[in-house]
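Problem: given the chain below (286 residues), write out its structure.
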Amino acid sequence: MIDFLRDAPVEGSLDVVWHAGWPSPRHDPAPEIQIHAYTEHTVILRQNKSVHYEAPFLFLLFGNDRALLLDTGASAEAAHFPLRATVDTLVADWLARHPRPGYGLLVAHTHGHGDHTAADGQFADRPLTTVVGAGLDEVTSSFALVDWPHRTGELDLGGRILDLLPGPGHQEAGLVFHDRHTGLLLTGDSVYPGRLYIEDRAAYSATVDRLLDFCATRPVRHVLGCHVEMTTRPGEDYPRGTTHQPDEPPLQLTTGHLHALRRALDETADGRGAHPYDEFVLVYRD
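Solution.
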């Protein structure tokens, strides 16, 4: 049994250059999915922008009893986006190093938008696999989240515990995952270096406050969202639909960015449309 509590939060590696597409997507030599091992038990994947411009990040976390695949990307067909085959290989490799019978897979989502759920169907017939539906009722019932969105929950992968923080505002079923083993705060589309689309500003503001309160008492090494849409020039983003982003900033943010986001929300409380800040752009859509 692996002790996921010892020395937690453990340090991982973000020494990676994320592939950001190609000038001619049809001639991109890179694979459909980029794979980076953050730790031995934590894998970050990125869908190639040449496959889909959204290029979402996905996360695969291994526990003693089962692994968690967080989000399934923006493309459904395995021929263009072989997520199931990629995950099966990663799980098989991990099990070769840490053999155990009956190892399961849980497929869940940061929220219910199509660029994070498209490949769910690839896992429909996978043995020992549970796919959590992306709707609010499925999320709250599957994770026993009562009194939504006011109470948090926990997910146990077998000695590896994740805190579940309700995160509506961008989308009603948004869920933020805090991995106690690595200290990663996985924020989906709620916080990332890009355009933060706000569908319900009251709910979104409450989510940011919830994250700040949580981070005040828990160790958070990095804040990781699911996209990169900014350039390295403060306040300047790539246009929606861009398939080649050669001047990307890093994926990782800090809890300091959550405080900056709180200030930005206060400054634009009565605003409409887009409001650029150094590392993100607020986009009000309510």
